[in-house]
Inverse folding.
């Protein structure tokens, strides 16, 4: 019962946020798991719907994201020193946390299945980036978070070889937190990506409690 009350209270607090709060929620370098301690900041940026459409799967538009109830977001991405040039098989080369803000919590929940998981599955076999083809997608069982969460492991193949990306989405009210890790070769990083996501969840909760 206490957990339900806490979850509902946090969900309500997400309606009092401004878009500026999102930047404080994404993780800084010192908050990353020890396995990623040698990483450095690659980029941080506001993810409005126009930017999302530019970097998302083919067919997405600023208007389609708006219609899905997405308002804005913020990304903070880190890379290992070995990311360029790429090093050996099994090396983690990129890690990031993202926070998306939606119109309401129905939209954030619907996004996880209807946009995130569905679009990954629908694009298997398609070119998804610069000379990159999405060759496989595996849905993961994720149950470590306060509220609903989903995860996927995607494998891409291109001129530089094979890359795998483990991604977790979790919901707190109308917020959606995302953690992901990119690895050289066909590998899974569910445990590491979960650790990253749980730290992001704690950071989101701290910010919600501080602003409510």
């Amino acid at each position: 019962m206490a957990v339900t009350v806490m979850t509902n209270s946090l969900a309500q607090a997400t309606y009092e946020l401004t878009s500026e709060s999102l930047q404080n929620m994404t993780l800084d370098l010192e908050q990353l798991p020890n396995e990623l301690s040698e990483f450095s900041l690659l980029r941080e940026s506001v993810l409005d719907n126009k930017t999302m459409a530019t970097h998302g799967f083919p067919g997405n538009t600023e208007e389609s994201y708006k219609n899905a109830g997405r308002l804005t977001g913020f990304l903070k991405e880190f890379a290992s020193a070995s990311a360029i040039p790429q090093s050996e098989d099994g090396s983690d080369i990129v890690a990031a946390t993202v926070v998306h803000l939606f119109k309401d919590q129905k939209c954030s929940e619907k996004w996880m299945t209807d946009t995130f998981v569905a679009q990954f599955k629908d694009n298997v076999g398609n070119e998804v980036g610069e000379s990159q083809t999405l060759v496989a997608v595996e849905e993961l069982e994720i149950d470590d978070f306060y509220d609903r969460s989903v995860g996927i492991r995607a494998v891409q193949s291109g001129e530089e070889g094979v890359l795998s990306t483990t991604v977790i989405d979790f919901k707190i009210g109308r917020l959606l937190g995302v953690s992901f890790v990119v690895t050289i070769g066909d590998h899974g990083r569910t445990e590491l990506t979960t650790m990253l996501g749980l730290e992001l969840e704690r950071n989101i909760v701290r910010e919600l409690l501080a602003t409510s």
